[in-house]
Every structure is written in structure tokens, then in C-alpha cells.
Design brief:
Elements: E1 2-5, E2 10-16, E3 25-32, E4 37-42, E5 48-53, E6 58-63, E7 70-74
Antiparallel strand pairs: 1-2, 2-3, 4-5, 5-6, 6-7
């Protein structure tokens, strides 16, 4: 899984399906924020993604391991 934040206020997680042998990466929009996103950080366990940005707040998302789908944002 790869993470990506961009100045258009969006956070993406990219996943790859290795079962097909084609190794095609697929982006999944996790959240669209109201301000620019500057930094992303995974937890040690890899299931929590912390996000900080132009609003000077840190939020986090709990991800289902292996799925790359967010279960909600916590302020």
C-alpha cells in the first residue's frame, strides 16, 4: 500500500492486486479535506493513517488491514 496527499485537499491510498500477476496499482480516495494536506504518517501496525495539513489539525483514519478502506475519520 502506498499513500499520497496532494494540494487539492485529497488523500489517496494505492493498492496492488498481486493475485492477477499484472501488478496494477489502483488509487482509492480516502478523504477530501477542506484545506491542503501536507503530511501523512502510518502507525507502526500499519492500520492507522495520521494526516496533517493547512488547517493545523491532525486527524486519523483507521484502515481495515489488507483492504485499504477507511472506516472513518477521527479528529
Amino acid at each position: 500500500m502506498l499513500k499520497l496527499c496532494v494540494q487539492d485537499c485529497q488523500v489517496f491510498v494505492w493498492t496492488v492486486d498481486v493475485t492477477t500477476g499484472s501488478y496494477n496499482w489502483t488509487p482509492k480516495l480516502l478523504h477530501k479535506f477542506n484545506d491542503v494536506v501536507w503530511h501523512l504518517s502510518w502507525s507502526v501496525t500499519g492500520n492507522i493513517l495520521a494526516v496533517s495539513g493547512g488547517d493545523n489539525k491532525v486527524t486519523r483514519s483507521v484502515l481495515e488491514l489488507g483492504e485499504g478502506t477507511g472506516t472513518g475519520w477521527v479528529g
